[in-house]
Design brief:
single chain; about 375 residues; alpha/beta; Rossmann fold; Helix Hairpins; Heat Shock Protein 90; 5-stranded mixed sheet; 10 helices; 12 strands; elongated
Length: about 375
């Protein structure tokens, strides 16, 4: 059952109150008061439940304007309409200035006009009420975001100090241990410990960089870059991966310059190329193209291999997103592409991924000005 909005009609003339009730009772739950004092009692009994008050101006003890002034103190959101005589211009001015009315109606009122006015006013009340709720929700969400940002900052400090410091000690002592005389089994153990420590170091660095990017704590140093070959800037990890999978890099880069933070740009490239090689087929080609498109320079990196399901494409930039069925992904912590997208957004760009029309390739592309 639909609950009717409540409206309050105030008039010292009983006949007028009955007429207003008959006019509005089909659409509204009509409350009636024969004086300003009684109207305030009804409002107190129905706190925050009355959408609109319709009051006559000329009433004994408390005028309509005086009533509206009191209502503003307790429920300022309530829509206020004043009924006046033709000659009560001063009352209208007071109602506008003191009672902050939505509209005034002159006697004798036109039932159709009055009904339409009340309908619009009640609708406005509910829209304002919903807006107020949404505003409060946004304020709460904003406070939660600020709290979350503070938590991220504390987390970053914790990771940076409490994890990196002991990890650095572990790696340093491992280096010392590896320089000592070890038998084959001991060397095997220390090598595995070294690999695990390095992997943990990379994970910590990835978590720190994406946290700093989200907190806008990464400072860019944009400069003009002219990249003639991506292969010249491949990391040692990528060079080893390229060799182990017997993959080839095919480059087609137009000699155009663009602006970017050099250190972050080559980090982005290496991460995307690493992803392309990791999920590309062995003995295949990684195609890297750079070309002028409209007013920007676009990089495109494409590998031969399994395509990505559409459902996964929508989530692939979410931090820590892992999908075991996506390109047989079973390694990493799901931060690589998220980091690339965050770093590109700092450059005013973004990372795009799509499956090629032939269904045998995945393309990564991003523009830079």
């Amino acid at each position: 059952m639909t609950i009717k909005p409540k409206i309050l009609c105030v008039d010292d003339e009983v006949d007028n109150l009955d007429a207003l009730e008959r006019l509005f009772r089909k659409k509204y739950d009509v409350l009636k008061a024969d004086s300003g004092v009684n109207a305030l009692k009804i409002i107190a009994e129905n706190k925050n439940q009355i959408s609109l008050v319709l009051t006559d101006q000329r009433m004994p003890k408390m005028s309509g304007v005086e009533l509206l002034e009191e209502i503003i103190k307790h429920e300022p959101e309530m829509i206020r309409i004043l009924i006046t005589g033709f000659t009560e211009l001063e009352s209208v001015i007071q109602a506008v200035n003191k009672g902050q009315i939505y509209r005034y109606i002159t006697k004798p009122w036109d039932p159709v006009d009055l009904s339409n006015t009340v309908d619009r006013a009640v609708e406005r009340f509910h829209l304002n009420h919903e807006l107020s709720i949404k505003t409060n929700e946004l304020e709460i969400a904003y406070k939660e975001l600020k709290t979350l940002d503070e938590a991220k900052s504390k987390f970053m400090i914790l990771v940076n100090h409490e994890l990196k410091t002991p990890l650095t000690s572990i790696i340093n002592f491992l280096h010392l241990l590896q320089e000592s005389k070890l038998d084959e089994e001991q060397k095997l153990y220390t090598d595995r410990m070294q690999k695990s420590a390095e992997k943990l170091k990379h994970i910590i660095e990835d978590v720190l960089i994406i946290t700093r990017a989200e907190l806008n704590q990464l400072q860019l140093d944009p400069q003009s870059l002219l990249v003639s070959s991506v292969e010249n800037y491949l990391s040692e990890e990528n060079k080893k991966l390229l060799q182990s999978k017997n993959q080839q890099i095919h480059e087609n880069l137009e000699p155009l310059d663009f602006k970017a933070d050099k250190r972050l740009f080559f980090q982005i490239l290496n991460r995307i190329v690493n992803n392309a090689m990791k999920f590309g087929l062995a003995n295949s080609t990684i195609d890297i193209k750079g070309s002028k498109v409209a007013s920007f320079y676009e990089f495109k990196i494409q590998n031969k291999g399994p395509t990505i399901p559409e459902a996964a494409l929508k989530k692939i930039f979410q931090p820590f997103y892992l999908e075991e069925n996506v390109m047989n992904h079973s390694i990493g912590i799901g931060l690589g592409l998220s980091i690339c997208d965050k770093l590109l957004k700092l450059h005013g760009s973004n990372l795009n991924i799509k499956n090629t029309d032939d269904g045998v390739s995945v393309a990564f592309y991003f523009p830079l000005v």
